Amino acid sequence: NIYERMAKIKSWQYINHFPGMNQIARKNRLAWNLEKMRREFPREYSFYPKTWILPFDMHEFRAQFDNKTGKSNRFFIIKPEAGCQGKGIFLTQ
Predict the structure, then answer these.
(1) CA-closest candidate to residue 91, choices 71, 69, 68, 63
(2) Residue 61 and residue 74 in contact, taking contact as beta carbons nearer than 8 Å
(3) Which among 65, 81, 76, 74 has a CA at the least distance from the CA of 31?
(4) Per-residue pLDDT tens for 25-59?
(5) pTM
(6) Angle, CA 86 vertex, CA 32 and CA 59 arms, to 5°
(7) CA 46 to CA 42: how far, in whole Å?
């Protein structure tokens, strides 16, 4: 458990990763948690754009596109789950 681990740390040791950090450090987990909070507190969590986590939200995401043309009048930013430094990010319409 975390309390036992912290109790064993020596005075000269440092912690650079905390348990549970992947819940906010990974884009997909951060989006998942923000969407969860937006469902509970819509007004307080309206500060970021609508986010879909693919493939989990694929049906809802596809609903943003025209059935015949497959296009949308909006632009979407696609970010890979494990990318960094802007690699793999692209726009689609």
Answers:
(1) 71
(2) no
(3) 81
(4) 888 899 999 999 999 999 999 999 989 998 999 99
(5) 0.66
(6) 40
(7) 6
